[in-house]
Design brief:
The complex is a heterotrimer. By secondary structure, chain A is mainly α. Helix content of chain A is 87%, strand content 0%. The chains are: A mainly alpha, B mainly alpha, C mainly alpha. At the B-C interface, α1, α2, α3, α4 and α11 of B face α2 and α5 of C.
């Protein structure tokens, strides 16, 4: 029990550092979701199941959905696909096409 | 010059964070041990809640008895925070039919529905009723088991979002449009406010309502906890769905 | 050493708070800033929830037999931090939603998520007006 708790807490710190160093946004949001899930498991071990169920439903579920739907509205996915397809060509051209797609 | 300043700023930020961690760890080290029963946090207030909440409020779960009865104004304010957040997001992201015509095609594509996906639709035929039943179970058993209005409402809101993605806007707006959103949210908030303010005005711990306060492990024996849980659940599920539809296409279509 | 192991949740919460704060300071991207704010929120909730834990007890859900015989309070954890944190979790989601809406609006206006570029553009615009 103690060992599980300690490893979960260390994992929590590692995940927070990972969010800090991740450059791309979608992986950072997914890691944030796993951070919330780890948090809810810790609360389950601390004998507060009310908190655990609320965090699993609200923190991990709803806020991640909000982030992803905001990305979709800002058109970040289409930009990423553009950059992926233009990777074979020059670097500057790819960023230009991404910007053009954004301006359209 | 600017680049140099940025580098200095970053280094200063990291140093500040390290100093902050050191100071807070020294402070935390002076706090009493975790899990000790003699800690000052475990005082007579929690004792009172644990011993009396089962027969005073009718809730076997001391947490929901606390947040919906002893500290009900807190939860009322929180429900209003959710409602106000939805209104603020609506003001920021609103997109009516006139402005939609002027938008570039990239934005328009997002407000259109995605293509009908047979795998998603068929599998959700089985999943959505199960999710709804689970959400209603979590809300209705809020005073007997962990859960309550917040988590159950979030689960039901997630089921609405899945329904929208599987069967399209046309189908969900038969029962989930701006009118039902306003009526449900306002009625739930008004009911919550009236029920609790009556209790506070009378100044009594247990009000004689139609539902008896027995706390015998059945669902309909918890006084006002069950209706208040349902009101909170309605507000939360409406908020979750409304936030999603606001980000997705900028408002309800009708 | 034993003390350190016992109070590990508090240390972890404090370190996570500092990491979230440094994300808030160091990153120019606004989505990353919102994530940092979320990390700070969660670490504070972890700290509060840990404060209510009593070793060797179960969740504060009274059983029927207990209720008939009179509740023994030494068997259950403290319900007060759980109630406080429950309020906080839901409020933090609405804060996230409002911040995301503001970010979406700024992205529509300026076409970028970088806060420095946005400030630069706003200053240029002001200068042109003068």
């Amino acid at each position: 029990m103690q060992i599980l708790m300690a490893s979960l807490l260390i994992l929590l710190v590692i995940l927070a550092v990972t969010i800090a160093v991740t450059k791309r946004l979608l992986p950072a949001v997914i890691i944030f979701m796993s951070y919330s899930v780890i948090n809810s498991i810790i609360w389950m071990l601390l004998q507060s199941p009310d908190l655990a169920i609320t965090e699993a439903a609200v923190g991990a579920g709803i806020s991640t959905v909000l982030f992803i739907v905001a990305f979709k509205r800002m058109g970040l996915f289409e930009k990423a696909i553009d950059e992926e397809s233009a990777k074979g060509t020059e670097k500057e051209a790819s960023s230009k096409s991404g910007k053009e797609a954004e301006n359209e | 010059m600017n680049k140099k300043f940025n580098k200095l700023y970053n280094i200063l930020c990291v140093i500040f964070a390290l100093i902050f961690i050191a100071a807070m760890i020294i402070t935390v080290s002076a706090l009493p041990n975790i899990g000790d029963a003699t800690n000052p946090t475990n005082n007579e207030v929690s004792e009172k809640y644990l011993t009396d909440s089962s027969w005073e409020t009718g809730s076997l779960n001391a947490v929901s008895g606390m947040i919906l009865d002893y500290r009900a104004f807190d939860t009322l304010g929180e429900s209003h925070v959710l409602f106000v957040a939805t209104v603020a997001v609506f003001i920021l992201l609103r997109r009516d039919e006139d402005s939609r015509k002027d938008l570039p095609t990239r934005c328009l594509n997002q407000s259109y529905e995605q293509a009908y996906d047979p795998i998603l639709a068929k599998s959700l035929e089985f999943l959505i009723p199960a999710i709804f039943v689970f959400g209603i179970y979590v809300i209705a058993n809020g005073h007997l088991s962990p859960g309550g209005g917040f988590s159950g409402g979030a689960i039901i809101g997630a089921a609405f979002i899945l329904y929208l993605n599987a069967y399209g806007l046309e189908s969900i707006e038969r029962f989930c449009n701006s009118r039902t959103y306003l009526i449900c949210s306002c009625c739930a908030l008004l009911f919550y406010g009236l029920a609790k303010s009556y209790v506070f005005y009378v100044g009594a711990n247990h009000l004689h309502s139609i539902i008896p306060v027995l706390a015998d492990g059945s669902i309909l024996a918890s006084g006002l906890i069950l209706p208040l849980n349902i009101a909170v659940g309605v507000v939360v599920s409406n908020t979750v769905y409304a936030l999603y539809i606001m980000f997705r296409r900028g408002g309800f279509s009708r | 050493m034993n003390y350190l192991l016992n109070n590990l949740p508090e240390y972890s919460a404090v370190i996570c708070f500092a990491i979230g704060f440094s994300i808030l300071l160091l990153n120019r991207n606004m989505i990353k800033k919102i994530l940092g704010l979320g990390i700070m929120d969660s670490s504070i909730y972890l700290f509060l929830a840990v404060k209510g834990y009593v070793a060797g007890t179960v969740a504060p859900i009274v059983t029927l037999a207990e209720q008939a015989a009179g509740v023994d309070t030494t068997l259950y954890t403290n319900p007060i931090p759980a109630g406080l944190v429950l309020t906080g979790i839901v409020v933090s989601v609405s804060v996230t939603a409002i911040l995301l809406a503001l970010t979406v609006k700024l992205h529509e206006e300026f076409g970028t998520l970088n806060i420095d570029e946005i400030i630069h553009m706003v200053r240029e615009e002001d200068r042109r007006k003068e």
